[in-house]
Design goal:
The chain is mainly α. Helices cover 68% and strands 0% of the residues. It contains 17 helices and no strands. Helix 12 packs antiparallel against helix 13, helix 13 runs antiparallel to helix 14 and helix 14 runs antiparallel to helix 15. The protein is globular, with a radius of gyration of 21 Å.
Amino acid sequence: MARNGAVDRLRRERNLAEKRRVLEALAALEPEAAAPGDSESALPDDRLRLIFTCCHPALAPESRVALTLRTLGGLSTAEIARAFLVAEPAMAQRLVRTKRKIREAGIRYEVPDRERMPDRLPSVLATLYLIYNEGYMGTSSERLLREDLCADAIRLAGLLAATLPSEREALGLLAMMELTHARRDARTGAEGELVVLAEQDRSLWRADEIARGLDHAARAGAGGPTGPYTVQAAIAAEHSRARTAAETDWERIARLYSWLARFDPSPVVELNRAVAVAEVEGPERGLELVERIEGLDSYGPLHVTRADLLRRLSRAAESAAAYERAIELTENPVQRAFLDERRRGVAGG
């Protein structure tokens, strides 16, 4: 494990050095390079400065985030495609088009000053969020958790929140990451098998990190949520406060997902809301909501959720088929093993 971490760090440092050389070469094409000033002192980290640099407002939001993830985030095109719920060839074409637009439009690579940072902040937050998600889920990894990506995202989110203390969304993102990451030791069992949230040994959750995350979530949400990350921090806080799975306030979590849908009306949010509603109103109601969701046929968690709800409704054959579909869409071997065990369990009655 330590050796893997060291290799990951060396690879990441080499990649970052190469990305910096690329950006410097692109900037050199401009007739006038941006002079260092307030922007340099406002962002105390090279990696964070480069992310702000890549998240240029002249590019479409999804394109700038995708390019930043590919250039600086350490994610492959396949991983980025999964994050955006699109096919890998489509994402590859989007990246090519984005690079062509940068070249043809002569877009300047420069670190924004403090006054222009808010224009780029949503894309920077989305970039850090997706880096953390890939680390947490390990979709293309042999391990369930990619500690290097999670640690990078949390470190950068912490620096960002400290640099821009009035931006509550930045603090909310940090809180969500801290509260989720605090559960990492309980996510796998003695043999490395996946342990779902409801079955985790909560004594393994890191109390100091939870306390810090709860404080950040409370400060971010003071006066009401300001965006998707303050809401997600509040959801993570509800899970963290529950001493047992049975004590989880699912009614409040369901309400929070309804809030989240106002900021992010996506099918993934609707899926998560359906899970919460199922805990409050029962699996039949949850399944009803899941069946209404469109656009997620290639999204593994949709089929995992269907499979679990069908299992709880004693619809074994349908549940097994849903688990089979989820397995087809899952690359991580730890997740696949867990799903296959569940599939065999329902198939065997």
